[in-house]
Amino acid sequence: MALTDTFVRQVKPTGKAIGDKYADGAGMYLLVKTAGKYWRMDYTFAGKRKTLALGTYPEVSLAKARDRRAAARELLADGIDPSAAKREEKRARADAAANTFEAVAREWLGKTAAKRASGTQLKVKTWLEKDVFPFIGKMPMSTIGPRDILERVVRKLEARGAIDTAHRVKQLCGQVFRFAVVSGLAERDVTADLSEALASKATKHFAAITEPKRVGDLMRSIHAYSGHPTTVAALKLSPLLFVRPGELRTAEWAEIDLDAAEWRIAGPKMKMKVDHVVPLATQAVEILRNLHPITGHGRFVFPSIRTGERPMSENTINAALRGMGYSAEVHTAHGFRATARTIMDEVLGERVDFIEHQLSHTVKDANGRAYNRTAHLPARQEMMQRWADYLDKLRIGADAIPLKPRQMT
What we know:
With about 400 residues, the chain is of the alpha+beta class. The chain is built from 15 helices and seven strands. A four-stranded antiparallel beta sheet has the order 1-2-3-4, covered by helices on one side. Strands 5-6-7 form a three-stranded antiparallel beta sheet. Strand 1 and strand 2 (about 30-35) form a beta hairpin. Helix 4 (about 100-110) packs across helix 7 (about 165-180) and helix 9 (about 230-240) packs antiparallel against helix 11. The termini are far apart.
């Protein structure tokens, strides 16, 4: 005879140590003990008698217990042991609980740290901790879908106008998911479904002065700037070397050979991850020689004022430019690259492939092969010296600066 809801609710324990069993059919019964009421199911698998726990009353009602019995019988019909399946499901839930987005992201962040500059590592960590973890950090990787990334993370960034950050954070989430896929913690990168869902990212141009006369004014302002010696040196070198600001501020003395007038930067520190050589004009060598007695005892050419264990802040050069009266809309630290690129091509007629190579952009030969780091090094050394001499002429206000005929590329 099948059980009823009323009976299950009202039945009381009789005091037996082993409890009392009340059958519902198909192997399921209610075990009533002083400690509580338990749903159980007896079954046979591979010739062995087994018991499956279906839950506790009243948390598991009679109807729900019957549903679980039906599910167990379906597993038996497919040749699967319900008890083993239950253990596997429990283990999977435990794994999912342990492998939250935050846990996996922090593991990914640690294992990939060597591929990023320290400043980039800090920026990525901050984005995750500020814009991602509070919203999906505690969710198991296996439960996160595209809409979770879109609604809980990306849309929040878009709502505050941080469109570029929204794109970057979405890319970070994708990297974490791809790491999880390789680690067997996720089936796929769910951010792939969001390619058309994000607001368009505005093209970002770094403000730069590219008119020779105004560059002369800028150079005079730079040479008149009075500040900390490392800042002064970095500011003077910025237009001479036109490397990326992050590459300049993390320069190390071990990378620089003043006698050979070269600065060799290892690929991992470069944006394109390719080794790069920066020929040093005599003006750049002089600035570095004057700075060496001040910071040459340490690792970084431009160490932080607070501690020599880190390079100067990424905002140092821009802050100096602001202090000189150049707003972010007029000229930026990154803008020195555009200044050199434009004037060296349009005014001085330098070979474009040499300029692009010196900007550490990918340059290919006639056969489509990328040049190596030392390609055309003597010619680039001469070009960098001409550029430094030209900047000096602009600074002292030379009225007539002869233009070189444009070379064929």
